[in-house]
DNA sequence: GCGGATCAC
DNA sequence: TATGGTGATCCGC
């Protein structure tokens, strides 16, 4: 069909240009994700763009992107001002001091496991109906997908994607409505197993847990690799679910590591300063928890693409100069590969600090807005009881 | 103290 | 046809 395609694209009506907007439309659906190595990203990008470009949602995304662009330009202006006034040297000095202080807090004495269930919701449904495992399937509906199995990911279908767009990418996609009772049941089965390796393990959502296995390893006289394999086998044997495990000296690094050999794999980062710094030297900043799409763009604008760049002699001062104290501290820590390695803060998860209910609804053109508000308030009232 | 922005899941 | 919901934190007013 190639000649036909060529004829079609050259036979366009005069003055009509093919819409190339998709090339610059960086939706969240095209970045690298586990199971999506073989996806034709340009094709996905194009399909998402074609199905998005005229929607209110798209215009809102554009508004947000433009605002981020202005923020980045403002930071770059401040950088140029500092450079032209030769003020960076002072920041370089205070940054060097901060980095030294942070380095002194490095703790290599723990072994942390981050256990991350593979495509958790989708895998739960596959357990209930094994025929689902062989076909592309997503949890959710035409409105929104919360996760997709690996069959579906081959087509570019992924979490947080609207189902109607996923259907364009994969017309045979099967949907499973969410079943939180099922996920909670399976999650507690998994947690019962993990508690055998660290009774104080830290659950992060239904499908992620952090385990401090330092003492467990000593008691068993085992290597981290062997224990990770043992836990994954144990979970699979007793629940039928696979997981991936990241192993490192702190929770931040362990979390990054659990993603590296997903699904059904593990990654061990050796417990030495050299190994950690070598790791951050090739680690894209976007992999660091807390650095999202916007911060990645800002850092990229400053020429900072790898975590180690954040603490380099030439740019740590820039980070300190341009970001707030909290933000720069977090960035420098990330660059050094520092993270929490002690027992989880007692009062950190002490209690919920807020409660909210929100609903998306179609435009009401002023009519029925108060009724809608009352309805949502009633749901909030329920949630508070 | 509040609302907007950002981020994670 | 059509793009979720909850909670947390930070920051600038």
UniProtKB/TrEMBL annotation:
Keywords for this protein: Coiled coil, DNA damage, DNA repair, DNA replication, DNA-directed DNA polymerase, Magnesium, Metal-binding, Nucleotidyltransferase, Nucleus, Transferase, Zinc, Zinc-finger
Residue stretches of biased makeup (Basic and acidic residues): 11-22
Superkingdom of the organism of origin: Eukaryota
Catalyzed chemical reaction(s): DNA(n) + a 2'-deoxyribonucleoside 5'-triphosphate = DNA(n+1) + diphosphate
GO cellular component: nucleus
GO biological process: DNA repair; DNA replication; error-prone translesion synthesis
Coiled-coil residue windows: 58-85
Subcellular location: Nucleus
UmuC domain residues: 112-292
A GO molecular-function descriptor: zinc ion binding
Enzyme Commission number, as recorded: 2.7.7.7
Main location: nucleus
Record's protein name: DNA polymerase kappa
Organism field: Chloropicon roscoffensis
Complete-protein stretch covered: 50 to 434 of 596
